[in-house]
Amino acid sequence: MTRKRNTLDGWAALLDGTAEGDLIDLFGREARLRRSAEALASDELAEGAWVDEAEPATERVRLAAQDADDSVTFADAQVRVRAEWDGGTLVLVQELGPAGVTAMVGGTPVPLHPGRPASVSVDAVPTELVLLDHRGRRRVLRPVT
Fold it and tell me: pTM here?
């Protein structure tokens, strides 16, 4: 705003005949100002700082918080099972604990083997995971954060 006012004041002074400089100096100053603005705009365009706001964003962004809902780790002191939900399928991977445990997911027994994925069809990720060891003892695993 100040620059515009200074330019307008310069033109008014020229028209009044009270200008200290001549018309060539004023045009030179105006040309340098426009050249600097154009250089700044082209630098911003070259660096990618310029965005066409009329064009909608086409790429989709997936946030880490969205990924957290799809993967849960259930654990207690001796057993750890990672569960990844992909639509209607829950993939369980036993990361820690003895071999021969079976997960009960919605009434369906899912045999687990350390390091190998096992899948079961479910509607959502369960809030807790019930395991049965090779002797039939029940163990409840809760989600860890």
Answer: 0.51
